[in-house]
Amino acid sequence: MADPRFTAEDKNVLDLIEKTFGGGFKNYCLLVYSHGDSALRDIDLDTYRKKQMEIVQATSGRITPQKVSKEQGRHAQNQKILSNFLGELSWKIIAVDNSTSVPLEKAHYRKQIVAMVDKMVTSNSPEIYTNDMFVKAQQQREDMRQKGLRKGWHPSVMSIVEELLAANPSISQEQLQVEVSQYVQREHVKKSMELKRKKEELKKHELLKKNACRNKCV
């Protein structure tokens, strides 16, 4: 069974598209496996879609880590990213044999793609991704970037702003501010706990050192 290859470079491309057009772009696109004859060898599209759904469900909870090689771990992580992306596309997937020269097969593929696009258009509101949506996503990103610069936000916070806007381009300024504030609070608590842990470890180390010295002196 062959799985479509999905690499870190592919993820970077998706991240760039999402940052440019906002997370809402997924409502207005579908994924076409142009080499379906090789990418999905020995598996039909429905079975592949079901398999990806199972991966999403399995990775949505806490998984007991298993000992795997670095390469296996990287592959599993990339596969999880791909599965999540397909889920965000609402499983709008089509596989075609791009190398076919049979006119009937080509016509069948065209008919499939057009039918899925028509269905997608009728289910979206607005029906198509508009220039206004793009401008709004860009403007929100720039407004928050300027706000972050004025407040001296850490680059990690700016990165979270980018992710929030990409995932939900229609998010209000108020909600975005709430999300950012919650992130900052979580980071503050995390750093405080880490600092407390280090102090406790240092105290424990000093105590052990003192006891060792005392025993040695005795």
In short:
The protein is an all-alpha fold and 218 residues long.
How is this structure best described in words?
About 10% of the residues are buried. The protein has about 220 residues and is an all-alpha fold. It is flat. The longest helix has about 45 residues, at about 175-215. It contains eight helices and two strands. This is AIG1-type G domain-containing protein.
Order of helices and strands: HEHHHEHHHH
- Rounded average pLDDT: 78
Apparent shape: flat
Low-confidence stretches at least 5 residues in length (pLDDT < 50)? none
Radius of gyration (Å): 25 Å
Q: Enumerate how many helices there are, as a single number.
A: 8
Distance between the termini: 69 Å
What strand order characterises the main sheet?
Answer: 1-2
Main sheet specs: 2 strands, parallel
- Approximate strand percentage: under 5%
Number of domains: 2
Number of strands: 2
